[in-house]
Structures are given as structure tokens and as C-alpha cells.
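We store chain and fold; example below:
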Amino acid sequence: MNPKHLFQKIVSFPVTLLLALGLAAPLEAGEQFTQEEIASSPYLQSVLRRMDERYDTSKFRKKGPYRIALAAQGTSNSWSALFDEHAVSYAKELGKEVIEELLYADAQASADNQIPQVEDLLAQEPDALILVPMGAAALSAPVERAMAQGVPVVLCASAVETDNFVTEVGTNLYASGAGLAKYLIEKLGGRGNVLMMTGIPGVSTSDVMEAGAKAAFKKYPGIKLLDVQPGNWSTAEAKRIMETWLVQHDRVDGIWSGGAQMSQGIVSAYLDKGAKIPPIGGGEFATGFLRLAIANDLEYGAWQYPNAMVVLCMDAAVNILRGRLVPRFIDFVDHIPGTGTFTDVEGRKYYNAKWSDDVFGPILFPKERLAKLGFLSK
């Protein structure tokens, strides 16, 4: 990348990456929302409004290099571990003349851990704070304090309940949840028994997707929700829950899953039982899931939530500190090639047999780092 042009706009990625990923045909997300849906979802109201807003960051303008604080989910799973590696790698790529220091806190996926960590980071007087909120309500007050302290906040991969921040990098999670539900609805012809497995309760990524999915299912009286359980984005926990469900429910026509870690556990439970796997609304660009999907000829609809989005979060932080107008909502789909929705029809394009099952693509740092971190298959 050419440093002279790096921050004129959100990072553009090389053509070689675009060709390597391929562009999938979109899975309909159903982004035409009813007035009832909008009225009942503060998140949806906020995202739809901020899509057209720009933040005047002139009051945060200062000379670099910068000290950026990153309050991350932490190494609780491979997605977040690769998120952290993208952040470290990108900071090194930019060089000390841009980011002098990357301050870091590992929340281990806990809001209780993250709240004091944010306070500790703010005590170190960073120039900007990038936050992956582990609780929409719990992290609202720390975000307010950061902004009051003059530290601009970039929300990365999740949201908070306050509107007092500069920008959010992510995607429309309500639409993503609804899109996966719509995939199942169409597969089942609007009738059938469906199970839902969500992520970590209290984290907006999980809660908002769940709300979008339930709203979509509600439009079809023939869809019966048998149960909803949190799998906490854990393969082992998802497998345990699915094993219980297989005992409890004689007929399951489709499964909605809020994350590929959980989808992998769901598939594993079915394989152990020797039962036919129903369509799944919840695939991702995740090697372990894609390997199982290809080997077992699964039918699935997939969305993406790339850990590489932290690159856009860091880009936004530097843009803010250089006093540039910043969009209040940055959708990674518009800036990282190949991160839209796809189905089993396109899934083989995303599978990389050289990666270990734990890898969530796309990966934007050198493959040598993947090898050193143990993320290449043996």
C-alpha cells in the first residue's frame, strides 16, 4: 500500500486478493424493513440513520504518530485471535511514523473484564480508542467517559446503546440475521420446525442477529421455532446443545446458527448420531465449517463477519486523528472484497485446504504469520 494515499479513504485491497476470493452471488438479506421492525429495534433505527451521516472530526485533529488503544474481545476463540493478529500486523505495516504504540486489552469475551480494562486504557491517555464491546449496555458508560475525556471512539464488530461515539465498523446485523432466516424459509417453503442457536447473550452481534431472524420467522406462521439456545460461539458447547436437541426433537427441518463455530459443532453432533443434516442458515468463511460442508454435501446459507475488519477500524481511527470527515457507519462489505453472503453453491471457492479448521477468512496478513501461529493444516 502507498502510505501517501492510505488514509484518503477506507483501505482498498489489492486486485490479487479480490481474484483469490471470488465474488459470491448475494444471499438475499431482505433489507426492506417494516415500520414495526424499525420501531421495535433501536439498533436498526441507529444503523439506518448513521448510514447517511458523517462525523466532523476536526476537534480530534492532532499530529502523529499516534497511540491507539484496542479493547478487544481477546483470545477466547480463533476468530478473535486472528482479529488481534490483523491489528498487530497492520500496525507494523503502517510503521511507527503512523502508529507509535498499540495499547491492548484482552477481555476474554467478558463485559465484566472489559469495563475496568477500558478505564485502564483511558488512564494511559491514548489518542483514540477502538472498542469491541462485550456488552451493548455495559460498555455504554465507558464509551461516554472516553468521549468526554476527548478520546474518539471507534466501535469495531459490535455496538453499544449510546450514540455518543464517532463511528462503527461492521455490517447491518439485523439484516444479516434476517437473511439467514430467509434462506431457511425459502428452503422449507415457509413451513417446518426450526431450531435457533445464538452467540453470547448481551453482545449486540448476537442479540441483534437473533432479533432480525425472529422477525423474519414471525412473518411465516408455518415456521415453528422449537427452541432457542445460546451456543456462545463455541464449537464444543454447540455440539453439546445439539446432542440434547437430537434427543428432544424427533423432527428438525432447519437450523439457524449465529456463527460458524457453532454450526461446526451442530454438524459434528449430527455426524456422530448418523442422522441426516437439515439445511443450516449460518455458514461462514470458516475453514472447519467449509470442510465439513463440502465433505457432507451440506445445504447452507452463509454470511460473513471477517476478523480482518479491524484494519478498517484502525484506518478510521487514523482518519479521525487527521481531522477528516468519517462515515458514522462503515460496512466492511463495501471495502473488503468477497465478504458478502454466499451459499453452498459458491462455498467451494472459499475453502482453503492449507488452512487449519480454526481459520476465518479472508486473511490479509502474510501466510508466514499463519504458519507461526499454528493456523496451517498439518
